[in-house]
Amino acid sequence: GIVSDVTISNNYFNNDGFNPGSISFGNAVVEYFEITNNMFPNGGNILGNGDFSNCTVSNNSFLGETEQGYISFQAGLSNFVIDNNYLRAGRITAIATSEAVGGVFITYNNIEEGGALFAQGPGISEVIGNRVTGVKNGTAITISSCKNVIVANNYAQTYGDVLSRGIFLEFVVNSRFVF
User: Which of 44, 50, 116, 143 is the most exposed place for a label (fewest CB within 10 A)?
Assistant: First the structure.
């Protein structure tokens, strides 16, 4: 069935040391959801696999001292926004497997202490204003297999003894990369 008109906001997802807080949609068909203003004080997840349209994940905070935070969605994403989330350590992943009307917008997120941002697929429309810092021996922002994407005004800080990359573009065509 279809999950529609869901709002999950202003919640505190505690981690008891064994189970991080989690919001998860598995093999879902979701229309119109908003996950906003939630607090994950010691890591947690917002995850989805399936078809998602008209959805927003915004203003969530992952403050993990020992556990990381993850925001990850994949498959059919249309008019999907990941905006203004804070992850003390962790990863944002969006894999949009098809070109969808509306696209995927990953904007103004802040990932600190060695996290990463990964955007893949022809449905990615914009990766703008994100900040990824403290990445050791790795890649801060990866844009892969995208076309017609705008990558603008992102900030990446990396360091290390081996290959470290700020922004890595792989198989990106007909796109704009601007500062």
Answer: 50
SS3 66: coil
Query: Tens of pLDDT along 97-106?
Result: 888 778 999 9
User: What is the pTM assigned to this prediction?
Assistant: 0.95
The answer to whether the beta carbons of residues 98 and 125 sit under 8 Å apart is no
The residues that bridge with 178 in the sheet, in sequence order, are 152
Give strand ranges (E) for 63-164.
69-83, 86-87, 90-96, 104-107, 110-111, 116-120, 124-128, 131-136, 139-144, 150-152, 155-159
> pLDDT tens digits for 106-164?
999 999 988 899 999 999 999 999 999 999 999 999 999 999 999 999 999 999 998 89
